[in-house]
Amino acid sequence: MKCDFSLQYSCFSHSRSTIAFIIPQSYTESEQQGASVNKTLLLTGFEQFGGAELNPSYEALKGLDGTRINCWTIRTARLDVAWDSPMKQLRSLIEEHEPHTIISFGQGKPRSFTVEAVARNQRKILPDNLRKLPSTQKILADGPDAYSYEARAEAVAQELSDRGFRIRVSRNAGGYLCEECLYSARHLMAKGEIEGKAMFFHVPPLGTFCDGRTVDVSYVREFVKATAEVFAQSTQPAQ
Known about the structure:
This protein is an alpha/beta fold. It has helices spanning 29-33, 56-59, 85-97, 150-162, 177-190, 217-232; strands at residues 39-46, 68-69, 72-79, 101-107, 113-116, 118-120, 146-148, 167-170, 198-203, 209-210, 213-214. It has six helices and eleven strands. Strand 10 (209-210) and strand 11 form a beta hairpin. Helix 3 crosses helix 5.
């Protein structure tokens, strides 16, 4: 499957990046009447980690904060690579921006973009940027084992593939901070703290190759913009 537009989502311990995204479906007449209501789309990326100078998942978001697509306002944020931080930061961002939808990005493997289809309640025993190990092996002690949305992930991947991006669907977000971000966002969605949806994408590392192109910040930004544009094509996203 090819992908030349923004949405890759695959995570694996240290080398993954992340993003979350939503594809609109059919909606009711009452939803259509509210289609012109302004909504906020929150895009998140991660700080650098593992000795790297830059993390493409956040560098690609620079310059997008405050821009608009149809009735959507884009907001961006950088997440810390620290255990227990994603839930706290996402809740703070939700309080500040009241986003309808959250799309998260992280650094993943080379050669393709990835969309994550499963968020598992698990942590690998790996140090974060504070050189700390996770205090527990579960993200949430009383949370479900996993949140799965494979059909939606497949649909999003197809949309991005049709736009020319090499993208694959992943069912293993890696157990590091990308997975914790995705699981946290999906949990907040399940609890009604996010009105819309949440998805996560991994982008390839800078300097690697993807579909014959060298991966640089501008290429990753193309992908990020594409994910936002695909989502905003519908005047009213499905709930």
